[in-house]
Amino acid sequence: MQHDSNNVKEIYLAGGCFWGTEHFFKQIDGVVETEVGYANGHTEHPTYKEVCTDKTGFAETVRVVYNPVKIGLRFLLKMYFKAIDPVSVNRQGHDTGTQYRTGIYYTAASDLPVIEEVYSDEQKLYKEPFAVEKLPLKNFYTAEEYHQDYLDKNPEGYCHLPLSLFKFAKEAKPQP
Length: 176
Known about the structure:
This protein has helices at residues 18-26, 48-51, 73-82, 112-123, 150-153, 163-171, and strands spanning 9-15, 31-39, 59-66, 91-92, 95-96, 102-106, 133-136, 140-142. It is of the alpha+beta class. Helix 1 (18-26) runs parallel beside helix 6.
């Protein structure tokens, strides 16, 4: 779905299982649309089953469309770091495999300075080096329909994120 590009911006965030990551970002006031899919792999039109083989190079990723008047990229990225373990390699929660790696994939080069700054600020809070990729978006394929809004459709569904994090996201506001 395309939006008037003057009103919204987008960023692609991989944070482990995309069910919880999408649900987390949907709670944030200023996020206007989310879509789960597969990013930065090396095959065409991968299926979930193929991505789970660890052979396609794709990461489970959420396309986050946001209103830059309400929230900025800096705020979104700060929220992102609250929802991931940034030092885990190819693992978030109990999920392991390259599709669960963490990554920030951007479509506008102008976003890179903000990405670098937040990344650097967050890295200072850890001794271990971050495993979070920072790369231009190479490709993105929308996941199968049953994965979209998964936790809305399946409130009891599996999620690697604690429920308290969703409440936190719903109440979070950017600092003026």
